[in-house]
Here is the input.
Amino acid sequence: MVRDLDFSPDSRFLVSCSYDGTVRIWRMRDGFSKLLEDKYASSFYSVKFNPDGRYIAAGGADRMLRIWSVRLGQLVQKWTAHGGVVDSVVFTLDGKGLVSNGENSWKYWDISIFELAEPGYGVTKDSGAEQKSKVTAHTVRHSCSTIPSHASLHSLPFCLQKDVTSIAISPDSRWVVSASADDTVHIWDLSNAALQCTLKGHKGDVRSVDICPTGNYLASGSSDGQVALWRYEAT
Here is the structure.
C-alpha cells in the first residue's frame, strides 16, 4: 500500500512512502525513480519535502522520524519521535521546524540547531544504532497552560484527550491544527503550544485536516462522512 505522496516545491519530483518500508522519489518528466532506504525501517505512514526541496522527512510504524538528503539519496538523521506510530509529518514554511503527530500528541521539532551536512553526518547505511541527535522538541498538553519551549527528547509526556490523527500548519507558521479522535479539531499557537480554540461539529473521529494556502480557511474530514469548512481570523 502506498500511504502518502508529496510534490517537490518546484513540481519536478514526487515522493511516495509505502507500507513495505520504503520511500521513493519519482522524476515527473519520465517516471524514473530512486529508492531512499533504511534497512531497519518498517511501514511508513507520512512523507514530506522540506520547503527548499533538499530534504525529505518520513514517519511510520516504528515510532521514528527520518530525514534523507535528496541530492545524495542518503539518510542523514533519525530519532525516536513518539511512543507509537508516527501518523504525519509537516515542515514549517521556513524549514526550521518539523511537526509530527503520534498517539495522543503532536510535537514540534527544532531542526534549525543541527547542520544537515553532506556527506558524513547522521546515520550510515550499515548502522542500526540511532544517531545521537541534537533535535529537541516541545509537546502539547491538552490541559497545560505552560510548556517549556524546548526539552530533551524524551522528557515530556504526551497528552491530548484522544488520538491525534492528522496535523497541518498555517502558511505563516503561527498555528498548528490537529484533528482528533474526540470528534474535534484543535488550533494551537506554535510558538508556545498553547491551545487557542476547539472546533466542534463532527459526529465521529476527525481523520484529516488541512489549511488553505492563502490562510483564513481550514477543512476537516470525519468518519461521520462529512467534510467541514471552517473560517478563522488570526488576532
The first strand starts at residue 2 and ends at 7. The chain is about 0% helix and 45% strand. Residues 118-133, 138-159 have pLDDT under 50 and may be disordered. The domain at 1-123+135-159 is CATH 2.130.10.10 (Methylamine Dehydrogenase; Chain H).
